[in-house]
Design a protein that fits this description.
UDP N-Acetylglucosamine Acyltransferase, domain 1; alpha/beta; 5 helices; 6-stranded mixed sheet; 15 strands; 5-stranded parallel sheet
Length: 241
């Protein structure tokens, strides 16, 4: 018997989920290891089954399956959410994806990510995530907003407004930085070491301006300005932490 188109499509999607984990986690050694031991993959697979039930009107069964997956994996995905192929949830603990969320292809989520709502009104109230987006650990993307393709959300950022494609978002509330170089690669793009420090850059700019003004008035910059050294280390008193 020839397999139906939907069966072939589901099998292809599962294989793509496995490959996404292999491509994006250097600790993954084999498809068997990923299939048996990766809770992020298990949560996505359970969601695909729960979503199949949900869209066919089996709401209670879909919710029951999603809650069982939550207990096993620590990842809560509402069965009404739409997840594209190639999604990889790394580590996964504490990830929450709401009912009307839409996630594109080749997206990567780290632990503690929330795709949540900001209203109790029924209807579209969760974010839409474009293709090849990477969302860092602990980030919160809230409301019926869109995250443009190829963007990356820094760890612990709180995003409450639409983000253009190929952007970087950092901070609370999230500040959007346009990128000078767009990426089309499916690989995750979240090198936290090179995320912009917008507050730090603004403070440095203000300090430099103050130095210029003091030099213009007194002939030399103030010796009392507090700023980090060239290697980014602040000097001061020892503190008990």
């Amino acid at each position: 018997m020839v397999a139906s188109h939907s069966t072939v499509q589901r099998t292809s999607s599962w294989r793509r989920d496995l490959q996404a984990a292999r491509d994006r986690d250097p600790a993954a050694r084999s498809n068997l290891e990923v299939a048996l031991l990766y809770p992020g993959v298990h949560a996505v697979w359970a969601h695909r089954a729960a979503h199949w039930l949900w869209v066919r009107g089996h709401f209670f069964a879909g919710r029951a399956l999603s809650q069982m997956a939550r207990k096993v994996t620590g990842i809560e995905i509402h069965p009404g959410a739409t997840l594209g192929p190639g999604l990889f949830i790394d580590h996964g603990m504490g990830v929450v994806i709401g009912e009307t969320a839409v996630v594109g292809e080749d997206v990567m989520l780290y632990h503690g990510v929330t795709l949540g709502g900001t209203t109790l009104v029924k209807g579209k109230r969760h974010p839409t995530i474009g293709d090849r987006v990477t969302i860092g650990a602990g980030a919160k993307v809230l409301g019926a907003i869109e995250i443009g393709e190829g963007s990356r959300i820094g760890a612990n950022a709180v995003v409450v407004r639409t983000v253009p494609p190929h952007s970087v978002v950092v901070g609370v509330p999230g500040q959007i930085v346009s990128r000078t170089r767009a990426t089309e690669a499916p690989e995750p793009d979240l090198d936290e070491a090179v995320l912009p420090d917008l507050v730090g850059a603004s403070l440095h700019s203000l300090l430099d301006r103050v130095d210029e003004l003091e030099t213009a008035v007194t002939g030399h910059p103030s010796s009392h300005a507090v700023r980090p050294s060239h290697d980014g280390v602040w000097s001061g008193l020892d503190f008990s932490i």
